[in-house]
Amino acid sequence: MRTRDLSYWLFLAPVLIALTLVVVIPLFFGVYYSFTDWNGITSGEFVGFKNYLDLFHDADFLASLWFTVKFSVVSIILINIIGLGLALIVTSKIKSSKFLRTIFFMPNLIGGLILGFIWQFIFLKVFSGLGDLLGIEGLQGWLSTTQTGFWGLVILMSWQMSGYIMVIYIAYLEGLPAELIEAAEIDGANAFQRFRYIIFPLVAPAFTVSMFLTLSNSFKLYDQNLSLTGGGPFKSTQMVAMEIFQTAFGENKMAYAQAQAVIFFVIVAIISLTQVYFNKKREVEM
C-alpha cells in the first residue's frame, strides 16, 4: 500500500510542480502586483485598491468588457447550435459522414492568427468583389465599422470552433440507446419530438462541457481579434485580452494591467462556475 501511495505521488509530482510554477505562483504574484504601481522595471510601491478603483472610471476597459460580453453571448449560442446541427448531420445514415467529420473539424486545426488574416481577406476583398458584382452596398467596407467588425469576429469564431464542439456532441449522440429511439418511433413520435424529448435531454452533459469551452474561449480571444480587426476602428472592437495586453506592453502600466486581468479572471470564473452549476442540475442521467 505504501509503494502504491509513493508511486502515485511520484507520477503526480511533475504535473503538480509544473502547475505550481506556471499557474499558482504567477497568480499570487499577479494579485500582489495589482496592488502596487509596478511598471515592469522598478519595484512598485503599495497603492492599495487604487488600480481597481480606477478601472470603474476607465472608459476603454469598460467598453472592451462590454464588447467581449456581447461577443461571447452571441458566439456561445451560434457555436453550440451549429456544432449540434453538424453532429446530427454526421451521425445520420449518410455515406459521407466520416469525410464530413474531417471537413467540419479542419478549421479548428488552423492557428488563430492565420484564420484572422484569411477571413480579413474574405471580408475585405471577396465581399467587396461580390458587392461590386451584385450591387449590394452592405458588402462594401466590411470590418470598417463596429457592427461589421463584431459580426466578422463572430463568423470567424463560429467557423473555427463549431467543428470542435461537433466532436463533443458526436460522442454523446453515438452513445444514445438505440432501443429508446426505436421505441419512440414505434409510438409515433416525429423527428422533432424525438429530438426535443429524448435526444436533447440525454446530450445535456455534452451541452455543459461545450458551453464551458465556448465561454472560456470566447472571453479570452486574442489572436483572432488582433489579426482580423486589430481592435479597430478606434478600439471599438477591442476585446479585454487585447486591452490588457495594450495596457501592459503598450503603455507600460504593468500593475494596472494586472488589476484588469484579476478582475477579468474573477468575472470569467464566476460566469463559468455558475453556468456549470445550473447546467449540471438540468442534466439527465443516461
Automatic annotation (TrEMBL):
<protein>
    <submittedName>
        <fullName>Raffinose/stachyose/melibiose transport system permease protein</fullName>
    </submittedName>
</protein>
<feature type="transmembrane region" description="Helical">
    <location>
        <begin position="103"/>
        <end position="130"/>
    </location>
</feature>
<dbReference type="GO" id="GO:0005886">
    <property type="term" value="C:plasma membrane"/>
</dbReference>
<feature type="transmembrane region" description="Helical">
    <location>
        <begin position="194"/>
        <end position="215"/>
    </location>
</feature>
<dbReference type="InterPro" id="IPR000515">
    <property type="entry name" value="MetI-like"/>
</dbReference>
<dbReference type="InterPro" id="IPR035906">
    <property type="entry name" value="MetI-like_sf"/>
</dbReference>
<feature type="domain" description="ABC transmembrane type-1">
    <location>
        <begin position="65"/>
        <end position="275"/>
    </location>
</feature>
<feature type="transmembrane region" description="Helical">
    <location>
        <begin position="150"/>
        <end position="173"/>
    </location>
</feature>
<dbReference type="GO" id="GO:0055085">
    <property type="term" value="P:transmembrane transport"/>
</dbReference>
<keyword id="KW-0813">Transport</keyword>
<comment type="similarity">
    <text>Belongs to the binding-protein-dependent transport system permease family.</text>
</comment>
<keyword id="KW-1003">Cell membrane</keyword>
<dbReference type="InterPro" id="IPR051393">
    <property type="entry name" value="ABC_transporter_permease"/>
</dbReference>
<feature type="transmembrane region" description="Helical">
    <location>
        <begin position="7"/>
        <end position="29"/>
    </location>
</feature>
<feature type="transmembrane region" description="Helical">
    <location>
        <begin position="71"/>
        <end position="91"/>
    </location>
</feature>
<keyword id="KW-0472">Membrane</keyword>
<dbReference type="Pfam" id="PF00528">
    <property type="entry name" value="BPD_transp_1"/>
</dbReference>
<keyword id="KW-1133">Transmembrane helix</keyword>
<feature type="transmembrane region" description="Helical">
    <location>
        <begin position="255"/>
        <end position="278"/>
    </location>
</feature>
<keyword id="KW-0812">Transmembrane</keyword>
